[in-house]
Amino acid sequence: MNEKGKTITAAVLVIGDEILSGRTKDRNVGYIAEYLTNIGIELREARVVPDIEKEIVAALNALRGRYTYVFTTGGIGPTHDDITADSVAKAFGVPIDEDPRALAMMMERYQPGDLTPARRRMARIPAGADLIENPISKAPGFRLGNVIVMAGVPNIMQAMFDAAAKDLETGVKIIAETIEAGGIPEGRYGSALAAIAAGHPEVSIGSYPSFQDGRFRNQIVVRGKEPEKIAAARAAVGAMLASFSEYDRPL
Amino acid sequence: MNEKGKTITAAVLVIGDEILSGRTKDRNVGYIAEYLTNIGIELREARVVPDIEKEIVAALNALRGRYTYVFTTGGIGPTHDDITADSVAKAFGVPIDEDPRALAMMMERYQPGDLTPARRRMARIPAGADLIENPISKAPGFRLGNVIVMAGVPNIMQAMFDAAAKDLETGVKIIAETIEAGGIPEGRYGSALAAIAAGHPEVSIGSYPSFQDGRFRNQIVVRGKEPEKIAAARAAVGAMLASFSEYDRPL
Q1: I need a labelling partner for B145 at 20 to 30 A (CA). Which of A109, A195, B5, B63 fits?
Q2: B48, B54, B83, B136, best to mutate vs chain A, most A CBs in 10 Å
């Protein structure tokens, strides 16, 4: 796909008042994050902005200049609050109009008499964009330059993501290995882990607590691109944890 | 709390590699969004950034200058990857050191011999900050200026949020009313809804589809601060939807 070792980066831009009001709980960032990690693209930032054109344009222009790809979710439906396509056109400074290719895709679902003015809004695509197929409800997403525009409804977004992913440049996949620290407190192993992290600069090491039933349970994650470097760090973490034999630790 | 009609705004800054890798699915943005809406604070933006100091500092400075409050989650634990407190100090240009008040709170949980160097990291608080109580695991959050710094573990974050919320200035609560459009397609009512939205500029009207079992189900939400304006828009939407008697519509 590309020269070995190249880093491909991405940002997600979630567009929608309903996320910021708390009415709808976003599930797309987590899905996209996991998907990108699995195909060797590093998600570096995510933002949520309201349905306000200048906010969308500003965020798009900040992110698309900085990362290899920007994935947007939301705001491409048929109602007046769906302003993502127009905002993308404005961010790129290109015209937007009804796209015959998009209309043709939509006609697989609609009868001619069903093509209301509101639905025709979904065929408005910025000039120069490639369409992204929507196998579920037909109205397409699109890609313009490095910006991939998708629906907000999770299963439609996921279907569009599958379609768009085929054309993405990918890098070396980051490998993540999880080591159970279980009931060993972070505050006990923190200093030793910091020393291991300092001694293994080619990997990144994180410590992730969760809290249930009045107790912390901790996991340490070693992430990197080189298997032998990860194995060395993992061995060091394992040996360090084994020294805390007085605490519960699931295998 | 404040002069009537004043708008209080906020942003959320989620800090953590684990969210961007997809390993951990964020639940804090949705929780904070709903909470803020309920107390009359408008969440205007959310961002997720990695555990990299310059990224955290840049996002903090962008957001704290723009919104009444910034709420951060994550990065205040005892391990080397917990760099939020130092990043906040850097963003504000103030020193950071071990805070005797924070240590005293932590000693409610720890024996003196348990106060490892890693745990002492959690007592590092930027100069001038007020502490935020942590009834669960004691190591406090803090507030510096308009920035409220909380843990990433959801139930600890929620407890800190309860403590911090007491001192927040709040505005007029936004009222949101949901009207079931059920099986009426958005593409059918989109134009009529746009006309209603244009005729009721004092409220904001959104249309929110979900997709299950091969069908869309739609809801229309009218949001605003003035009950009589909301009632008028709601009545217009209801009358408009009633004209589509050929579609299923739950009561």
Answers
A1: B5
A2: B48
